[in-house]
Design brief:
Blueprint: H1 7-10, H2 13-33, H3 48-68, H4 72-76, H5 78-95, E1 97-99, E2 102-108, E3 111-113, H6 115-133, H7 141-158, H8 164-169, H9 173-179, H10 184-202, H11 208-228, H12 232-252, H13 256-280, H14 284-310, H15 313-322, H16 334-345, H17 357-360, H18 372-404, H19 409-433, H20 451-469
Antiparallel strand pairs: 1-2, 2-3
């Protein structure tokens, strides 16, 4: 087994090339997004593009430092870094600076540091350390509880800032748990829960014939499964049948809350009977059906509470606008509407560098941060956006290859954490820019303006490259 690592020889230069291409393209588009005729030089430190250059230089220095450090540094300090992260997240609630209603930043001189960005590094290291130590026995109850606690402790602090967008990023770690043995049914239930949440908001507009069709399809699928063993139809049949049932109830009454209470109470009262019968008669299908219905009813019953009492007003409005239930082109839908106009106006080849009218006249708020992708679309057109998307997909695929070739569990888990975080950021940011997802305010990796996000993504990536370069060593 090879023990000696040569960083220059063993590091993955293809990934570094993709990284450099993305940050340079991001820098040019930040320059275009906030271009000022009075400070035309791209190196002007008084403007965002000049400051971004400083962040890039610092990021490169961080990348070199990460690669020079011994690989055992990351394994031995995984837990201390995680604890320091929790302390920082708690401290920012007390002494942090409030920006746009969120207390998420430390002010260190003229530099703003957002600890929630660096928390993703800490969680990745701690989760990799824990799963490496437990030998991959994720599905043991104790191990699963601890792994979930490692993931969800930082979001508990972040939601108090409040910063819902950053909290959602931590859902990416479930992809890692799935890779390490979490049953795929858990992911399926997560997807069904999201669909059920949306249906619970939309169901009042359904037609009777559609509801009847859903109920028939659901129970026919369930019947086929029980008679012919087609397991793939089981979850689909139960879900569609239950959705149709809830849809029907909503159509029959305008008192949605009270009916849900009645359904929930009936389900809870009858569930012990069904469960007892299923155990006595050895009917696992009945047991599964009962538990699924209880869970779905509980979830649907909580939709109103989550939507009305947990989400803020602007977040609720953004979801309703995205679903087409409200139209507010001059309010909460303004950003997305202007973003789509900017991207669409670019055509195939774009308007040209520094020639974007939507960009030049500041029609799109946050255009150098969350909505940087619309600058690419307006000035570089379909060709430019395709190039950016291809580069990002190439990076994700390369990270997947690196993750799968790791020999130690610590390295593999950490690499999948990085891959999952990048995947979620790219998907959500581009999705919200083109109107497919609600606006939750997370940056596009290596493109969006900001030192904290650039540094955090750089450290995440280059720790991964450092681990990959030493994959021939014994790491735990």
């Amino acid at each position: 087994m090879r023990q000696q690592t040569n960083i220059i020889r063993d590091i993955d230069w293809l990934t570094i090339g993709l990284y450099m291409a993305l940050i340079l393209m991001g820098w040019l588009n930040i320059y275009a997004a906030v271009y000022n005729d009075q400070y035309a030089s791209i190196f002007s430190h008084s403007q965002r593009y000049g400051k971004q250059l400083i962040w890039i230089i610092a990021a490169v220095a961080l990348a070199v430092t990460v690669c020079v450090l011994d690989v055992r540094f990351y394994t031995s300090l995984a837990y201390p870094v995680y604890i320091c992260c929790l302390i920082a997240l708690a401290a920012v609630l007390v002494v942090g600076r409030e920006v746009n209603g969120a207390r998420s930043w430390f002010m260190i001189g003229a530099v703003q540091i957002q600890p929630s960005e660096f928390a993703k590094i800490a969680v990745s290291l701690a989760l990799a350390k824990f799963l490496g130590n437990c030998g991959g026995r994720l599905m043991e109850f104790r191990n699963l509880v601890i792994a979930c606690a490692v993931i969800f402790l930082p979001p508990m602090f972040i939601i108090l800032q409040p910063d819902t967008g950053s909290c959602l990023v931590y859902l990416a770690f479930f992809i890692v748990l799935y890779r390490e043995g979490l049953p795929p049914t858990i992911l399926l239930f997560g997807i069904l829960a999201a669909v059920l949440f949306i249906l619970s908001l939309l169901m009042q507009d359904a037609q009777v014939y559609l509801v009847a069709g859903l109920v028939v399809i659901g129970f026919v699928a369930f019947w086929i499964k029980t008679r012919k063993g087609m397991a793939c139809l089981k979850g689909f049949g139960l879900f569609v049948g239950l959705s149709g049932l809830l849809w029907t109830v909503t159509l029959l009454t305008k008192r949605k809350f009270e009916i849900h209470e009645a359904l929930l109470g009936a389900a809870l009262l009858l569930s012990p009977v069904f469960l007892a019968i299923s155990f006595i008669r050895r009917l696992p299908v009945v047991r599964t059906l009962t538990l699924f219905m209880i869970g779905a009813l509980l979830f649907t019953f909580s939709v109103d509470f989550v939507f009305d009492d947990v989400l803020s007003t602007h977040q609720r409005q953004r979801i309703l606008v995205m679903l087409g239930m409200e139209s507010d082109p001059l309010g909460v839908g303004y950003n997305v509407n202007q973003s789509k106009i900017a991207i669409g106006s670019g055509g195939f080849f774009g308007k040209g560098f520094l020639q974007g009218t939507q960009t030049k006249y500041d029609f799109v708020p946050e255009q150098s941060t969350d909505f940087i992708f619309c600058t690419v679309g307006e000035e570089w057109g379909f060709v430019g956006t395709s190039t950016v998307v291809i580069l990002l997909i190439a990076l994700l695929l390369r990270l997947l290859i690196l993750a799968e070739r790791q020999r130690s569990m610590f390295s593999r888990v950490y690499c999948y954490c990085v891959l999952s975080i990048f995947f979620l950021h790219v998907t959500i940011n581009i999705g919200m820019t083109i109107g497919l997802l609600p606006v939750i305010g997370i940056p596009l990796p290596f493109f969006s303006y900001g030192g904290s996000s650039l540094w955090a993504f750089t450290i995440l990536l280059f720790i991964m490259l450092r681990l990959d370069a030493s994959r021939g060593e014994y790491i735990r």
